[in-house]
Design brief:
40% of the residues lie in helices and 17% in strands. With 464 residues, the protein is α/β, with parallel strands linked by helices. The radius of gyration is 21 Å and the shape is globular. It binds iron/sulfur cluster (SF4). This is Heme chaperone HemW.
C-alpha cells in the first residue's frame, strides 16, 4: 500500500528505460532510489547463494527485517511495485503465508542469522492488511519464536478499507507499534481516476479512529507529479497531511514505468500530460520547505519525522553498514555482504521454499572492501547524510581520503553540503538523490558508458 521505495520493486523489462527517456515523460532511472549495492550478478547465482552465510563480516549494528505481502484489494494505475490483485482462491493466499513462515524458519535455522540483533520489523506490500487476523497472527508469532523482537519497533502498512478498528486493536496487542497508509492524494477526482481505493472522507475518518488506539506512531505517504497537477495542487495535499499532526510523512516522486496502466493511458490519450521536471522540482521544493517549517525533520531522502518519532526501520535500512533481512516474494535484502532479491513470481517463490531452498532469484557477488566504502556512501546518501565519524570508525580512513573528487564536485553543484559531522544532501540533492549515490559506484562502473550505467542501476545489475 505505502510506496516504500525499498524491497519490492517489480520486474523491469530492459527496454522500458529506453522508452521512458527522450519521450514527453522526462524521467530517468536515477529517479528510482538506489537500494542495492553491489548490484546483482548475471552468473554464479547458485554459488553465491550457497556461500551467503560463510565468512561472516563482523558488524555490530542492529538489523531490520522486512516482510513483503504482495496482495491488494484493488490495483492503482501508477503502481510500480510487486503486487497482484488479491486472488479469489483463499488457498493461494494461505500457500503464500505458509511459504513465508517456512522461509522465516529456514533463515532462522542458520547460526549467522540467529546471532543478528533485530532492531525493527516492517510488514509492507502490497497491502499486508488484506490478510486475515489469523494469518497475520501466524506470521508475527513465527517471527517472535525465531528472533528476539520483543519490545522492538514493528510497523505494518494498512489500507483503511481492510484495516478496521478491531483488526488494528488485535495487531497492537500482538506487538505492532506503528501503522502506515499510502494516501497518495486527498483529491477525490484524482483518486477515482487512478483507481485508488477509499474517499478522502473515509481516510480522514480512519485516521481519527486509529489515533484513539495510541500506536507509538502513525505515518502516511503522498505522491507528487500526477497528471495535470501543479504546485498548488500538491501543497493542498501536503497541508492536509501536516494538519493531521502525524509522527511521520513520506513524500514520493511519481516514477512512471512502461508497464503501468497510467503510462499506457498517457500513451493512448495524447491530451493527458504530466508535469515537467521543472514543475516537479517546484512541487518538491515548496512542499519540502512547508514540511520543514511545521516541525518535521528529514529522516531520509523521502521521509520526514517529528521530534521523537524517528522511524528506526529507515535508520537501519539506510545506514549503509549492516544487514537487511528480507522475506517474501520479490523482496530485496543484504546479508553478509551479498545483496539479494527473492523470486519475483509468487509461484516461483512458493515452490523454492517448499523445496527448503532459500528463494533467492538474483544475488550480487560478495562485497569487496572497496565496495563496502562505496556502499556506505551510496546507501548513506539514500538516508540523506553520511557520518564522518561512522565512516572513519569503520574504515580507519576519512571520506575525503577516498572520495574527494566526488565530494568536491557535488558540493560545487550544490547537491551536498559539509558540516563538522558529515555530508548531507541539499534540497536539490534530495531531489536528485539517485544521481548523487550513483557517483560513488566507481569500482563497478570503470570504463562503462553513462547510458549503460543508468540501465544497470535501474535493473540492479552488474555491467558485466
Ligand atoms: S494499494 Fe495501490 S499503490 Fe499500494 S501497493 Fe496496492 S496497487 Fe500499489
Amino acid at each position: 500500500m505505502g510506496l516504500v521505495l525499498c524491497p519490492q520493486v517489480a520486474t523491469w523489462p530492459k527496454l522500458l528505460f529506453l522508452k521512458i527517456e527522450g519521450e514527453k515523460m522526462n524521467y530517468n532511472t536515477y529517479d528510482v532510489a538506489v537500494m542495492n549495492y553491489p548490484l546483482f550478478n548475471k552468473t554464479n547465482i547458485d554459488h553465491h547463494v550457497r556461500n551467503i552465510f560463510e565468512q561472516p563480516i563482523q558488524e555490530d549494528v542492529e538489523v531490520p527485517i522486512y516482510i513483503h505481502i504482495p496482495f491488494c484489494d484493488s490495483l492503482c494505475d501508477f503502481c510500480i511495485y510487486n503486487r497482484m490483485l488479491k486472488p479469489k482462491s483463499i488457498d493461494m493466499i494461505q500457500s503464500y503465508v505458509d511459504a513465508l513462515i517456512r522461509e522465516i524458519k529456514l533463515y532462522a535455522s542458520h547460526d549467522y542469522i540467529k546471532e543478528q540483533r533485530i532492531g525493527s520489523v516492517f510488514i509492507g506490500g502490497g497491502t499486508p492488511t488484506v490478510l486475515s487476523e489469523k494469518q497475520l497472527y501466524s506470521i508475527i508469532t513465527t517471527l517472535k519464536k525465531c528472533f528476539n523482537i520483543n519490545h522492538c519497533e514493528m510497523s505494518i502498512e494498512c489500507n483503511p478499507h481492510n484495516a478496521d478498528y478491531s483488526k488494528l486493536k488485535r495487531l497492537k496487542n500482538l506487538g505492532i507499534t506503528r501503522v502506515s497508509t499510502g494516501v497518495q492524494t486527498f483529491n477525490d477526482d484524482m483518486r477515482k481516476r487512478l483507481h485508488i481505493q477509499n474517499s478522502s472522507h473515509a481516510i480522514m475518518d480512519w485516521f481519527e479512529k486509529v489515533k484513539t488506539l495510541s500506536f507509538d506512531d502513525i505515518s502516511m505517504d503522498l505522491i507528487f507529479g500526477f497528471p495535470e497537477t501543479n504546485t498548488a495542487y500538491f501543497l493542498n495535499d501536503v497541508k492536509k497531511a501536516v494538519a493531521l499532526n502525524l509522527g511521520h510523512l513520506s513524500i514520493y516522486k511519481l516514477t512512471l514505468f512502461a508497464y503501468t496502466k497510467l503510462y499506457k493511458d498517457i500513451q493512448k490519450n495524447k491530451k493527458m500530460s504530466l508535469p515537467t521536471q521543472e514543475q516537479m522540482y517546484d512541487m518538491f521544493s515548496k512542499s519540502h520547505e512547508y514540511i520543514l517549517n511545521h516541525n518535521y525533520s528529514i529522516q531520509s531522502t523521502q521521509e520526514y519525522s517529528k521530534k521523537g518519532k524517528t522511524v528506526k526501520f529507515w535508520d537501519l535500512i539506510y545506514d549503509g553498514y549492516g544487514n537487511n533481512i528480507s522475506f517474501g516474494s520479490s523482496s530485496f535484502g543484504y546479508i553478509n555482504g551479498y545483496c539479494y532479491q527473492n523470486q519475483r513470481t509468487i509461484n516461483g517463490y512458493i515452490s523454492k521454499v517448499r523445496d527448503n531452498k532459500l528463494p533467492i532469484e538474483r544475488i550480487s557477488p560478495k562485497i569487496t572492501y572497496t565496495q563496502q566504502k562505496e556502499r556506505a556512501m551510496v546507501i548513506g546518501f539514500r538516508k540523506g547524510f553520511v557520518s564522518k565519524e561512522m565512516f572513519f570508525k569503520t574504515f580507519h580512513t576519512r571520506v575525503t581520503d577516498e572520495f574527494s573528487s566526488q565530494i568536491n564536485n557535488q558540493i560545487s553543484k550544490n547537491l551536498i553540503y559539509e558540516n563538522k559531522d558529515g555530508y548531507g544532501l541539499t534540497s536539490k540533492g534530495l531531489y536528485h538523490q539517485g544521481l548523487v549515490s550513483a557517483d560513488y559506484m566507481g569500482s563497478i562502473f570503470k570504463n562503462v558508458s553513462p547510458l549503460k550505467k543508468k540501465m544497470c542501476i535501474g535493473l540492479h545489475e552488474m555491467p558485466y
